[in-house]
């Protein structure tokens, strides 16, 4: 996909040596963005892809190691069939068109969710994009697809129980449970961004976001720009993270 490279016009207050290691984003407000313009909802999702491109490229250029985007939740199947079909189409389009650009920017694509339940055609394009970006060593771009945090925990517990049945016994602690989640091997998110002003986690990374710093903006996702991303990171860098302790080091 031929796109203009994103300029990294760094604001002074941003410290590159204290970037969040993992940013996770609930991209909300595509429908409202479209409604305000009297456009069909899918136009909002299409505009949302532009914002995805800008945020992905900015994170890659800044040197943020992990970015997770909530692209399709398990609950999203409740939407009208036509919207789901168009969303899946957009996703396939993104996966096919973007591989070249992801490789050029050394971005590795990863995925979390009940992937096996996605339509076969999506699965095929997804597998292809995962394979073709496997060797990249820059930003890890994690797409949450058919993702739900409760389903993730249920899947983990099922697998742990199956292993216990095979092995007779199993010691369960936090690292073990983490290792059975879809995010096994990924660091927990440090900064969780939600657009469009809703104050909810919406079944996103419930276990992993236990100590994430939350940042909510009224901006609708298609209007989210590099400037908003910088502002969220600058705010993150001003916060004191205590993880339940007293914060004295
Ligand atoms: C929420 O907006 C957004 C989604 C359910 C889908 C997000 C998808 C994209 C941005 C495009 C595909 C993404 C990738 C990574 C290719 P909403 O429809 O719930 O908005 P509303 O709350 O205003 O109705």
Q: Would you write up a description of this structure?
A:
- The chain has helices at residues 30-36, 41-62, 81-104, 120-132, 149-167, 174-179, 226-238, and strands at 22-26, 66-73, 108-112, 140-147, 191-194, 213-216.
- It is built from seven helices and six strands; from the N terminus they run βααβαβαβααββα.
- The model has no long low-confidence stretch (mean pLDDT 94).
- Residues 27-32, 45, 48-49, 52, 69, 71, 76, 90-91, 94, 143, 196, 221 line the site of farnesyl diphosphate.
CATH superfamily: Decaprenyl diphosphate synthase-like
How many structural domains does the protein architecture include? 1
Q: What is the CATH class name?
A: Alpha Beta
Which band does the percent of strand residues land in?
5-15%
- The H-and-E topology, N to C, reads as EHHEHEHEHHEEH
Q: Runs with pLDDT <50, length 5+?
A: none
Assign an overall shape: globular
At CATH level 3, the topology is Undecaprenyl pyrophosphate synthetase
Small molecules (ligands, ions, cofactors) in the structure = farnesyl diphosphate
Strand order of the largest sheet: 3-4-2-1-5-6
Query: How many strand units?
Result: 6
* Main sheet attributes: strand count, strand direction, barrel closure: 6 strands, parallel
Average pLDDT metric: 94
* CA(first)-CA(last) distance: 47 Å
What is the structural class?
alpha/beta
Radius of gyration: 18 Å
Please give the CATH architecture.
Answer: 3-Layer(aba) Sandwich
């Amino acid at each position: 996909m031929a796109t203009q490279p994103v300029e990294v016009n760094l604001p002074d207050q941003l410290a590159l040596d204290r970037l969040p290691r993992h940013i996770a984003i609930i991209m909300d407000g595509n429908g409202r963005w479209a409604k305000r313009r009297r456009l069909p909802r899918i136009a909002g999702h299409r505009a949302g892809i532009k914002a995805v491109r800008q945020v992905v490229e900015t994170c890659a250029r800044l040197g943020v190691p992990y970015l997770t985007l909530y692209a399709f939740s398990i609950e999203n199947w409740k939407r009208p069939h036509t919207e789901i079909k168009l969303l899946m189409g957009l996703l396939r389009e993104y996966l096919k068109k973007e591989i070249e650009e992801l490789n050029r920017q050394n971005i590795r694509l990863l995925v979390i969710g009940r992937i096996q339940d996605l339509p076969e055609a999506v699965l095929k394009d997804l597998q292809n994009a995962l394979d073709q970006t496997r060797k990249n060593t820059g930003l890890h771009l994690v797409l949450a697809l058919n993702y739900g945090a409760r389903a993730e925990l249920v899947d983990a517990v099922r697998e742990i129980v199956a292993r216990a049945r095979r092995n007779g016994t199993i010691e369960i602690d936090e690292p073990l449970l983490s290792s059975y989640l879809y995010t096994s091997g990924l660091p927990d998110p440090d900064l969780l961004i939600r657009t469009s002003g809703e104050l909810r986690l919406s079944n996103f990374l419930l276990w992993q976001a236990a100590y994430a710093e939350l940042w909510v903006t009224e901006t609708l996702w298609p209007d989210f720009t590099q400037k908003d991303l910088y502002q969220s990171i600058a705010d993150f860098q001003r916060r004191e993270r205590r993880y339940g302790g007293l914060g004295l080091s």
